[in-house]
């Protein structure tokens, strides 16, 4: 299961937050004079060349796949992979080895995932938050709101020569089609602008969502023309995930969303108390959060903080102690699942329910195990939709088609399902 990743340039502990700086600056590195790779000069007959004549350090490495060395003084570092090679609509910025791996992904031979025929959202002015995404009709819990391929994906650890920053960013965009360049330029920048470079960096810092590619542990910042328009809420109603097998970002509704309601995602650690969330949004993302959870009256805000702090404390224990931290009790974790439900934090509820499930398994508590499996899958279904691998596997395990299982789920809510019926299905299937 691909749990969602927060908006993020880079990670602190878990690789799901922004770092202050997206790429490392190398102020004092000498130009590389013994370039190991054979680099073509820019006047070779490739259509993209004209676009790259801004830089005397950018070199074509290969035409197909279309790979450029961003700065031939640092040939081991940033390379641009433009896909497809001409009039590209995606650029990957990464080491040579990595962009070569990415260029060989089988998914590039397949047609890209089809956009939704009738997307249930509009991009429109949302007042103080700027542009945002609004539901143009009611959206069901777990419904796929949109899917989109990124246009810019970058390894946050690539090194840039300090005096080549402008060339670096311009180069990364230069091989993209004019439409794709315009889509990036249209994104919001919430950070101060002093020149074109700081503007582009500001766009990246303001908008990047995390994309986890299979061959690295660190999520990569990725820009999406539409997904990046989703504003933040501390109790979001939608969830972003990135699936590297299709190189696509997905947005699912975490609960039923009414027509006209804004569609929001979480940019930050939602299990943190309000002051901490707000401070992080201010320092890393440069805005004062105006969401409903931040605007709760004092007493309700304090109760919310207490619930989130308890959830956060257990999630922290899981980071070091694993899915079943030492000394964890199922009943206590289930109290936290309910707290997460109450807070509307579906991803937290899902992680906690899966932990409670493991504890039940550890304790040989088969009744709780079945109930928690059913509940946990309901959270996964909200996060990733009925097409999630976990949901499909459960349907198979129960001997049901995914729509049959979805219909059973749609008739209940966690705590009100007919668990005995699920148990019967499971037992019947085991016997077959
Ligand atoms: C990724 S962009 C989202 C789209 C953006 N509103 C736009 O106009 O394109 C993030 C920016 O939106 C605004 N924003 C998002 N969520 C917000 C919130 N909860 N409160 C206030 N501003 C918010 C901030 O300016 C933030 O830097």
From TrEMBL:
Pfam families cross-referenced by the UniProt entry? SET
Q: Which residues form a coiled coil?
A: none
Q: Which residues form the SET domain?
A: 111-268
Q: What Gene3D superfamilies does the record tag this protein with?
A: SET domain, Tetratricopeptide repeat domain
- The protein's name is SET domain-containing protein
Origin species, per record, is Mycena belliarum
What is the phylogenetic placement of the source species in the record?
Answer: Eukaryota, Fungi, Dikarya, Basidiomycota, Agaricomycotina
